[in-house]
Each structure stands twice: as C-alpha cells, then as structure tokens.
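Cross-check.
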Amino acid sequence: MKILVTGAAGFIGAHLVQKLIYLNHKVLSVDSLQTIGGIPYINPKSKFIKGNILDERTIQKIRKWKPEIIYHIAAQSGGESAYDDPKNDYLSNGYGTYLLCLLAKEIKVKKFIYTSSVAVYGSNPNNKIYENTEINPDSIYGVSKYAGEMFIRQILKKTNIQTLIFRVFNTYGPGENLNFLKKGMVSIYCSYLWRNKPILVKGSLKRFRNYQYIDDIINILVLSLKNKNLKKNEIINLSTAKAITVKNLLRIILKINNKKSHKILETKGTPGDSFGYDASNKYLKSKFKNYKFISLEKGLKLYFNWINTVPKVKNLKKYHPFQFKK
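Predicted model, tokenized:
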C-alpha cells in the first residue's frame, strides 16, 4: 500500500516508517526536521519530503503522490515545551490536522490514523480512564491534541474514510533525544543516569503514569491496517493500563543499572503537568485479541541496551538506533 507518515523523522514516526518499510509498503515520509523529543532519522528506503503540513507546497506534494493510508504522527509533542510557544503548539497539532483532514477527504484515502494523547483527559488520579471519560486537559498540549480529534470527527466522520484515533500514553524507547529534558518522563530520568548526574524530578514522586515501550505502540499502529475488528470510527486508549508511580519508576531504573543508590532532587512541577492517570485498555484488547504488552522492566532493559552504546555528546544524530551500531 501507499502510506503517508507525517512526523516521519520523529521518535514514533521513525519507528513506524521502519516497520512499514520492513513490511514492503511504499512510504512517503514527511517531516519539517524540527523534532525535539527524538533524534531525527529519515529512512532512506522511503520517499522523503522536507516540509511542514501547514505549508500548502507540502500539501500539494502529498496530493500529487496520493497515499491510500495516512498516519498522522506529526505534532509539537512536548507538554512542557508547549508553553514556550503556544501558538506553534496549536497550529501544529490543531490546524495542521485540519488541513490534512481536508486533503484526506479530497483524495479519498482509505484510512486516517491519528496519534492523539493521554493529555486530552487531564489529571484523573482517582479513577480508571476509559475512552468515554470526560475530556478535561490540564495543558495547552492537551487542548491542541483534542482540537485535532475534533477536526477529524467534523471533517471525516461522514465520509467513507475509516478514522482511528489512538490516545497514546507515555511512551519510551531507543531513538529519544537524551539531551532534551522537556519531553518524556522516562527519557528524562534515564538521561540523568546516562550522564551520571543527580536525577531531577519536577513534581511529586507520588505522581503516576502508564508507560509503554515503543515497540508496542508501533505494533498496534501497524496491526490497525488489516484489523477487521475495528469499526469505521474508533477512539482507543493505547496503554499498558498499569499505573506506576515516579518513585517506583526510578526504583526500577536504578535496579536495572545495578545502582543501589543515586541522588534524586525534587523541585516544583511544570505548567500543565497532570498528577496522575491510569487507563483501561479493555477496549483495545477486545479489538486486538488480548494483545500483550512488554513489561516495564523488560522495556527499560531494552532501552538501556541502546542508551549504554550512546556516547555523551551534544549532537546524537549519528546514534539513532536504526543507523548506529556499536
């Protein structure tokens, strides 16, 4: 199939393109190369367009290539960094999705698959989060990602296009930029350990999240291509559904690295940071035949297998896991 991946050079996008190429799909990679959370990587076996989906010239090139499937991964994806430039956050995540939906409708794609975020729910420390849980984002980022969801429903729901919205919970794995400390709780803490520095925790050690290893996210996204259990318009929590506190996350990270102790510094939290959320993934498992997620312990071991090969340099471009071999 001819598949477009926006945000193809970013953390999730690069892994997705790699898997799609492996499965012999024709892939159009689109990226502005301004990714912040991941090490930029363009798969040489994909057709690449450097551009922003807000730019009509980029949209025109996509229109000409005419994909059958769209994976819309492109986003300003940092909750904390959204406050550095709220306008860019909304334009990238909200209006950019609007423009891509209009294109999808025009060229009549078969599927439009969107990676939304747990951030749309906001903090929900006392209850499991289901797909019908109230939307109440704490952050600018959460507002902009939900705007993307609403544009999908408004523009594509009444067409013949199947729309799949995955609300992705905290994801980690090889390819994250260990030098960027404003996105990815797991990546940030692992980065401090990688650099042999005290671990700085912005907020309470009692905060909790669901953590997903990157391979699980990619597997579900790719399985969506031929999954006949999926209805025409779906919204699905993509989560392990296992709540882990920051304190326990740090304990597991240190244990894996045979660290009996390590200095941990607590400071005030960041704007829009949710205290806690824990998803239900019963709906996901009903659609993906009881899919089994990689455990946090195993995922972190796989992550450090890569981290421990990466030299402590400012520019990590050469050390993306798909091009760097120890």
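The chain has one domain: 2-176+211-243+272-294. The longest helix spans residues 86-107. Passed to J.P. for a second look.
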